[in-house]
Structure formats: C-alpha cells, structure tokens
C-alpha cells in the first residue's frame, strides 16, 4: 500500500491555518457570482477554471456593472501579473520537474502556495519540493472549491452580519506583512494601499483602483530601491 509522503502532509498542515481565511473568501466569491446573475453551474465552472480569488471577485463585480470587456480582461491580467513574478522566483526549484508536473503546478499556483513553499525550500534543502508544494496547493484548491460551491448554493442566504467580505483582505494582509522585509517593499505596499483607497474615494469606476495602485506601487518600490532603499 503506497504511503503518503511526509512532506505532502507537512504542506497540508502548514496551509491549515490559511484555510480559515480561504473558506469565507470562497463563500463570498460564490455568493457574488450568483448575485451578479451567473448560474450555479457557471459560478462553479468559473471558480474551478480561473481559480484566482482576487481576480474572480474583480471580474464578477465588473461583469455585474456591465463594464467594457477590455476593462474586465485588463483588470484580471493586472491583478494576476504577480503570478509571473512568483513563477520566475520558484522556477529554479522546479527546473527538473516533468512538463506535465510544471503545468499542474502553474495551475495550482496561489499567493499562499508560493509563500509557504519558498519559505520551506529556503530553510530545508532536503524537502521533496513537489510533494510539499502539492500538499499546500491542493489543500487550498479543495477548500476553495467547496467554499465557492457552498456560497453559490446558499446565494444571498448568508447573513450580512457575518462580515465575510473581510476574509479576503485579512488573508492577503497575513501574507503581505511578512513580505515587507525592506524599505522598497514597504514603500511599494504602503503607496499602493494609499493610492487604491484614494482612487476608490474619488469614485473612479470599474475597479481601476487595482490597476492604478498596482502600477504606482511598483514604481514607488523601484524608485526607493534605485536610491539604495534596501540597505
């Protein structure tokens, strides 16, 4: 009887605390999809194919607001551009993987899977890299899918008093704070946050706050870094 690799179990265990934030985040995504007119089957398909919480919510809201297709696609692309950086960063650890394994890994890539895996690889060189990554990523995928299905089925039946809309920002804050390791990253994060709030307050539609804040935040981080902000 085949045994489950210990590194896989380590990945599931390390991701477990994040499941507490992912589950309500997924419920919100499922509810939002149904509220904006998608059928339950479309909501489930959207979640399983796209599998990108932040961009899913952004796209759902934009589609519900009848935003131009270019804005919907552009917002999703900008929100997910960070995946290119994650991929470039983690690629050296996956260099010897088969093409099919790399393809599966790319589909399962999330902020949480990246952050936990990179931290693990950095402190334990003997880790079975794919087993650990797979443990983290698959457990997150399963929780997300079940949560979005539950949200789609419940629809608007979830009490607003539960405040589930705060789940998404809390999960990202939990990942963001440890990543602010130097002045450049701190400048990028703070500037992006301030700009995002300012754009929302200004009433600019179609979630352009995400695009504007991302661009300005990156520029701020590069500016600080170029002037020696990392020392």
From TrEMBL:
What's a Pfam family in this record?
AzlC
Record localization: Cell membrane
Q: Which residues cross the membrane?
A: 15-34, 41-63, 69-94, 130-154, 160-177, 184-204, 210-229
> What are the leading ranks of the lineage?
Archaea, Methanobacteriati, Methanobacteriota, Stenosarchaea group, Halobacteria
Membrane topology, as annotated:
Multi-pass membrane protein
Instruction: Enumerate the UniProt keywords alphabetically.
Output: Cell membrane, Membrane, Transmembrane, Transmembrane helix, Transport
Q: Does the keyword Cytoplasm apply?
A: no
Q: Name one GO cellular component term.
A: plasma membrane
- The name this protein carries in UniProt is Branched-chain amino acids ABC transporter permease,azaleucine resistance protein
Please provide the Gene Ontology terms (biological process) for this protein.
L-valine transmembrane transport
Family membership: Belongs to the AzlC family.
Highest taxon above the source species: Archaea
